## 1
Amino acid sequence: MDQQDIRHDFGLRPIINVSGTMTSLGASIVVPEAVSAVAAVLPQFVEIDDVQKKASQVIARLCGTEAGFVTASCSAGITLAVAGAMTGSNLAAIERLPDTTGLKDEVLILSGHMVSYGAPVEQGIRLSGAKVVPVGQATSARAYQLDGAITEKTAAAVYVVSHHTVQYGLIPLDEFVAVCHARGVPVIVDAASEYDLKGFLATGADIALYSSHKFLGGPTGGIVAGKTELVRATYLQNSGIGRGMKIGKEGMIGTIAALEAWEKRDHAGIRERETGYLKLWHETLNGRPGVTALIEPDPTNNPLDRLKVFVSPQEAHITAWDLADALASGPSPIIVRDHEVEHGFFYMDPCNLHPGQETIVARRLVEELEKARQSNEVIATSLERRRNRRAEAQMRWPN
Ligand SMILES: *Cc1c(COP(=O)(O)O)cnc(C)c1O
């Protein structure tokens, strides 16, 4: 390991991330512009409302909207935006939350959007004191169901754009907005991990929420963007339930710097570099016994592809999940994207690599696959045992 690597000083494993932008792995590589802005502001005093005014201008420009601010996370943004829709600018109501007595407090969400990004989306809604009203079924939702769920108590509707959600049979965002707006219900879009900063608000949605620390390469934070009145009501929650979700000056300034860098980012050049990594791994894997790799586009149309790697245990002498675990061990641990590994495949995401790591990844793939081929038996841990081992490790923390 590189002696300059701070992970060495803390006894942390020098993982290589081909999983994607994961909170559990430290999110993303923060862009140099944000790193230096964070370091420069940390020793200075600033007037926070003025920093947030500056953030508002930059967010408005990049998102093609009226206003915005930075909070602790996208998850915090969900809670605060729902709170803002319930209280408006009523400071007394803001201080009373999560007691919603006298307020509209029902929040609609499609059943197929009630997913977990590491915590349940609907808990982020309930944290404000709001009541969650699921609409439709897990894999189907129609406009009449949404319309029929709106009552005089409806405060807002939350729409989730993510690979985690059900990807078919649900109401598209523009129709969702049209139904809600016809009944005077504001729409809050959770677009935490999406590259498109303008498209969701362009449907007429009132607020869009993004994570600073995902594709933008900012420090940990959440971006709230949208129409001035609701953004202001959301911002005012900082003197209520938002206090425990506060972000510091470094998170605000770092997010502004990351947004400004995003405007100048060489999107085509970065895509080309990522495509090069995928081609290298594809060439490395194809033709190996029991391994089939193919390049697949992102399910929510972000401008990125991933390599989908199928492993046939009989021929490769190892299961997809045992290969994932083997890659994650040793002195150069590689973490793949294994959310669906029970189906016999994992993904490799090229977005969070430092140049040069792609060849380490290719070498480790070859090493582990050749080792497995030499094994007389198929390396096959039971999935249940693997799952239980992870759950037990979690319950043993910090030991
Ligand atoms: C990551 C994610 C979140 C949470 O974002 P944080 O900023 O990490 O709190 C919320 N919703 C979706 C769809 C996500 O992917």
## 2
Amino acid sequence: MRCILAASLAVATLAGRVLAHPAVSYGADDEGPVRRRKTLGFGPVHPHAVFRQVPQQPLPGFAPAPLRDPVEVAKHFVGGLLRDQLRAESGFVVRKDSYTDKATGVTHVYIRQVVNGIEVADGDINVNVKDGQVFSYGDSFYRGPAPSFYSSAVVPHPHADYCTELEYELESQQDRFEQWLGAAGQGEQVQLVRRRFNEALHEPLKRIHSMNCAFVNLPYDLAHKSTAAALEDPRHALLQFMVAATPEEGVVQDILAKYDEYLEGMKSTFEAHLVGDMQTMVEVIDNVPDAVSPVKAKLAYVQVPHGDKTTLDLVWKFEVEMKDNWYEAAVSAKAPHRIVSVVDWASDSPLAPVPKEPTERKLATYNVFAWGINDPSVGNRSIQKETYDVIASPFGWHGLPYANDPTEDDFKRASKAVKNTTTTWGNNVFAHEDWEGRNAWMYNYRPDAGESLNFDFPYEPKLTNTTDALEEAQKYINATVTQLFYTSNMVHDLYYRYGFDEVSGNFQQHNFGRGGEENDAVIANAQDGSGYNNANFMTPPDGQNGRCRMYLWNTAMPYRDGDLEAGIVIHELSHGLSTRLTGGPANSGCLGWGESGGMGEGWGDFLATTIRSNKNYSDYAMGAWAANRPNGIRNYVYSLNETINPSTYKTLDKPGYWGVHAIGEVWAEILWVVSQRLIAKHGYVDSLFPPAPLDNGTIPSGDFYRPQEYTAAGEKKPLVPKHGNSLMVQLVLNGMKLQQCRPSFFDARDAIIQADQVLTGGENYCELWKGFSSRGLGPDARVEGRTPWGGGIRTDDYAVPKACLED
Ligand SMILES: *[C@@H]1O[C@H](CO)[C@@H](O)[C@H](O)[C@H]1NC(C)=O
Ligand SMILES: *[C@@H]1O[C@H](CO)[C@@H](O)[C@H](O)[C@H]1NC(C)=O
Ligand SMILES: *[C@@H]1O[C@H](CO)[C@@H](O)[C@H](O)[C@H]1NC(C)=O
Ligand SMILES: *[C@@H]1O[C@H](CO)[C@@H](O)[C@H](O)[C@H]1NC(C)=O
Ligand SMILES: *[C@@H]1O[C@H](CO)[C@@H](O)[C@H](O)[C@H]1NC(C)=O
Ligand SMILES: *[C@@H]1O[C@H](CO)[C@@H](O)[C@H](O)[C@H]1NC(C)=O
Ligand SMILES: *[C@@H]1O[C@H](CO)[C@@H](O)[C@H](O)[C@H]1NC(C)=O
């Protein structure tokens, strides 16, 4: 293990490109007030974590397969897996967000490790069970001896090894960067790139270093003052974290100057929470500087590598909601100056029972860029109907029970009746203006179409100059909120039909009694005033609202409005999808940094590109209209042509590929190439939306699914999308559900291949492998010296498994 812990630039925004290509012009984003959100994202790497397939295992003495309770099967399996490896103090609980996927019949069981009665926050096993058999699992459980709870053992001094590693990393980054720049010569572009390097990578790393290693310089010498108290009192660790996390230098200075005052001001209450069937105590701390809501704190263990050994460190686990971030942080409980890991939930960027014939109310209409038109450069607006999917949105897009409407008073909320709105307010999405760029959203302005439900508002932006550009853009707020509402609802319904439903953690106020946690529709801010030229999404665990913020782009005159570029909206909403599906609905910490954080970006680009594509193949850029750059906001456009987009797995080794967006671009390109192989084999369907159910609830195959097949026992098999593009979307979503928390490229690739095994019996095994291999992600691709921001030395493999050599 060369490096234990380091910073990644997990800028979870749409456009995080920082230092990729010095030759590219950065255009207007150098001039305008570019929104650069501060964000932290780093944590230990777990070399022992695996994602594995399990050969068919007969379990002697068990009931016939279909009768077995999948959770019992999973528990039995995990018991076997851990036999002889865990000590008496160690156990596990089955998380309540485990679920059975109605479409595939796969039960996804999430298991959390418990040592000394305390959760191991990164000790996860996810077990995939079908027909009474475990067929794959991911495992990052800790295997060493349990620490004694109050052991004074390991700790404090500023983990010398860790700080040395960080210093080494800082230096070698600088060296590599200088070397690379050396070849690029001088000039303005190079200066710009240098500045960006410092801002984006070097400064944050230095900051982490000083937060964690400048032990002796702390104003109150916390090493002595708070170490003893920290185990009982999370406030020390929390204040330390806020010092590192706040983007406001003034707040930092103020905390340092009035440390005791802040400490006293923070008041705690206690709540009992259940993890599986284990009760844990959560401390809820109010008055935390720069947090916008009370912070949740609980004791947990995390696994930290020390040299070549991994130990369990006791930490305070915090959930901190701030204006621009929503952090899940682990701070050492024994050395409260030390942040062990941080994930920012903000990312910048057979189906359910069929309800009765739903709404009889008038359907809304919207003057919008129709689904499939990516942005104003490819088509004009037209009047579209409220074409909601009856399975995904039984009350339509404008109906929700009074009980789930947070703006209603207690009296109204006692009613189960359905409220029908005439604004952009519904069960899936609350869309509105946020010119002030604030956190408040409930009473923000929303267009009201009145009884007609006709959301037809003008959009005729006139040529402007900088003085009146903002004012001009704001004139069309009615049209842009309408568009954001329409696109977001379409995305909700589409992902629902591919399996992002209530039990798997989707975003809805009301769940129609279908399970999962409620009251978590997407809060969608149009024209968010906190900046320009970006977009972001915050994904807390199931049961808390996701937040989508869209910005104006000052890249052209008149300003361009991100709300009108479907690809950007889809990218952002896909963060919610991948975060909730990976590692289970209640775990939002699985795509925090490095390769997993990068894929969190890549899935969004891939889905946005797939949705806008049509039967005639074409290359596509991401964000080209909003950014006013033909090649968009990534290094390359998505293309089958290796000259146009040369990305392979090994591309991740290059300087400029340390941030999640660059990593994500490589992943999205690989998926794009793979999907074209499936399209070549299975053809293309114009609409990705599956057919509506018949009156008796049956989903007809139509031209969308293959004819229904049955098992030997006469049961329906999962419906299989017939065409290449729809099948790929299905495999990508099913793969997210199979893969483990903090997946690597290899894990996510294997999960997609396995999703095909489950769905079709593996008939696309060779097409999928050939696709992945063509971009270096063959079976023998390797990485050595993996680092938490995605660094390492990679080897491409262009070979395919033996079984695929024949044809
Ligand atoms: C909303 O519309 C539904 C379906 O058309 C109707 O049953 C319901 O009564 C309406 N709600 C109210 C409060 O009018
Ligand atoms: C939009 O409509 C105008 C006027 O009919 C037409 O000139 C223009 O080409 C259309 N734009 C696109 C992108 O189709
Ligand atoms: C900008 O536009 C406004 C309104 O169109 C005009 O009054 C003003 O003179 C323009 N300013 C410049 C610098 O062109
Ligand atoms: C938005 O629409 C409402 C209702 O039609 C209208 O009163 C208002 O002036 C519009 N807002 C803007 C900025 O045009
Ligand atoms: C695809 O190309 C054909 C032939 O050029 C054209 O007729 C058709 O309209 C195109 N389809 C789409 C969806 O662009
Ligand atoms: C790939 O792109 C390059 C550069 O645009 C072009 O010269 C080449 O013909 C393309 N290859 C194919 C197979 O289309
Ligand atoms: C539902 O209706 C369709 C068409 O009428 C019929 O083919 C199918 O067998 C029915 N399914 C059930 C479960 O009744």
